[in-house]
């Protein structure tokens, strides 16, 4: 065979797999079957720089006691500041509560893709800056990208927004997120269960957030109706 004809023959001998190993990887292995192993429940938790980082920490502490839930944690730089300011906690201590932690600048991490399966995401607490980014599809870091992915995949996104009072931009951004299917959950304490400590108030709120994900817990006392003597006085 002449060199010229061999050169012509070579491309015919090349399979798509030998040209690109990704093609081979994508081909189903007939012996492997198609059933994936069951996934644990996965929740992404982000702590941003609004006051109330205790909500995020409490969520992580709760999930740590639940081996069936895998927690994936993100903390913004301002969130780290508030962990110091409000709880005297360092980033590493909080990260130790989570199953997996990410750098907010790592926009190539697994949770930046819709192919990463999760039950959704909770931003606890959520600053007005992060709210604004999510409301406008501005995926400028891994927190806002992960939230964007959760929304596009129609999974549950809860933003525990915290500011007071609100300006019109805040209110409009909350409306936008709600229109996209996200849940705006300002951590506003209730008093009807007569909390005896800040921890009880936090647990009550965290429990109501967990309710949104169908996670069973005993953090929130359940309302059983008014006491009879309260009704008598009306
Ligand atoms: C002590 C402290 C408390 C803050 N509290 C709030 C707050 O309650 N709500 C808010 O939207 N921003 C608050 N901020 C400002 C945010 O941290 C700031 O806008 C930051 O850029 C948010 O960035 P992030 O969303 O990436 O965490 C606070 C900042 C500090 C230092």
Automatic annotation (TrEMBL):
Superkingdom of this protein's organism: Bacteria
UniProt catalytic activity: dimethylallyl phosphate + FMNH2 = prenylated FMNH2 + phosphate
Annotated InterPro entries: Flavin_trans-like, Flavoprotein, UbiX-like
Family annotation (NCBIfam families): PRK06029.1 (NF004685), ubiX_pad (TIGR00421)
Gene3D superfamilies listed in its UniProt record: Flavin prenyltransferase-like
Keywords from the named record: Flavoprotein, FMN, Lyase, Prenyltransferase, Transferase
Function: Flavin prenyltransferase that catalyzes the synthesis of the prenylated FMN cofactor (prenyl-FMN) for 4-hydroxy-3-polyprenylbenzoic acid decarboxylase UbiD. The prenyltransferase is metal-independent and links a dimethylallyl moiety from dimethylallyl monophosphate (DMAP) to the flavin N5 and C6 atoms of FMN.
Amino-acid positions noted as binding dimethylallyl phosphate in the UniProt annotation, renumbered to this chain: 192, 208
Family designation: Belongs to the UbiX/PAD1 family.
E.C. number(s) listed in UniProt: 2.5.1.129
Organism: Glaciimonas immobilis
Gene that encodes it: ubiX
Protein name: Flavin prenyltransferase UbiX
């Amino acid at each position: 065979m002449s060199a010229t004809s061999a050169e012509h023959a070579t491309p015919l001998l090349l399979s798509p797999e030998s040209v690109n190993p990704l093609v081979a990887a994508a081909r189903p292995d007939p012996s492997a079957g198609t059933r994936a192993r069951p996934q644990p429940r996965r929740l992404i938790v982000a702590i941003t720089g609004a006051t109330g980082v205790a909500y995020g920490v409490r969520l992580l502490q709760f999930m740590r006691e639940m081996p069936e839930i895998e927690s994936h944690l993100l903390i913004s730089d301002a969130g780290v500041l508030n962990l110091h300011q409000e709880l005297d906690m360092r980033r590493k201590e909080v990260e130790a509560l989570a199953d997996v932690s990410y750098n907010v600048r790592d926009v190539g991490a697994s949770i930046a893709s819709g192919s990463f399966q999760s039950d959704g995401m909770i931003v606890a607490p959520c600053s007005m800056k992060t709210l604004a980014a999510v409301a406008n599809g501005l995926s400028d870091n891994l927190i806002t990208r992960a939230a964007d992915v959760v929304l596009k995949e129609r999974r549950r996104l809860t933003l525990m927004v915290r500011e007071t009072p609100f300006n019109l931009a805040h209110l409009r951004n909350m409306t936008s997120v709600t229109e996209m299917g996200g849940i705006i959950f300002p951590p506003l304490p209730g008093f009807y269960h007569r909390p005896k400590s800040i921890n009880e108030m936090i647990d009550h709120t965290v429990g109501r957030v967990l309710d949104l994900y169908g996670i069973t817990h005993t953090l929130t006392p359940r309302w059983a109706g008014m006491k009879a003597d309260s009704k008598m006085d009306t």
